[in-house]
Amino acid sequence: MNILFDLFFTFAYLDLISIGGAMAMIPEMERQVVIVHGWMSHQAFVHAIALGLFVPGPNMLHVFHIGNQVAGLPGALAAGLGMFGPTSFVLATVAWLAGGPRPPAWIERFHAACSPITLGLMAAAAWNLGQNMTGDIFSLGVCVLAALLTARRLLNPALVVLLAATLGAIQAFFSA
């Protein structure tokens, strides 16, 4: 039962400090899951993130996967409630207090001020997830190509994922 509380409060903490969305909190999530609690290895964490991004749906599905790996279905529920419960409550309260569909001006200013923080946090997430690729020039090239295709909006992100997977499969076939 203690592990369920640990999962809930760890992900509630991550939920409340997340600025910029799911990917921006990946470095702190990895620190909590891998280093602080030791629930999984770095490689298993990277695989959880990749799996969560690959399957259809919200880009936070990896939270449920991590909770499931740690404590089964109750762990997945505890992690999910921790990740989505606190901010849902805060946002519902702010919407109720604001009394209308348009947020108050201070919320819009706060949101605009968070943009540079978001960019920095996302760069940190990319760095953390890509640390093991530094010696693999092929993977680094595929990563840069995917980033360029996505940033320039030349291909749908789903097609970029399929292209990267195809290139990885081809490379694995020829290196075996």
Briefly, what is this?
The chain has helices at 2-17, 26-36, 42-54, 61-98, 105-113, 115-129, 137-151, 157-175.
Structure description:
The protein starts with a helix and ends with a helix. The protein has helices spanning 2-17, 26-36, 42-54, 61-98, 105-113, 115-129, 137-151, 157-175. The mean pLDDT is 85. The protein is mostly helical and 176 residues long. The longest helix is centred in the middle third of the chain and has 38 residues, at 61-98. The chain has a domain at 2-104. The radius of gyration is 18 Å and the shape is globular. Helix content is 77%, strand content 0%. Its main location: membrane. Keywords: Cell membrane, Membrane, Transmembrane, Transmembrane helix. This is Chromate transporter. Belongs to the chromate ion transporter (CHR) (TC 2.A.51) family.
How are the SSEs ordered, and which strands pair?
Blueprint: H1 2-17, H2 26-36, H3 42-54, H4 61-98, H5 105-113, H6 115-129, H7 137-151, H8 157-175
Helix pairs in contact: 1-4, 3-4, 7-8
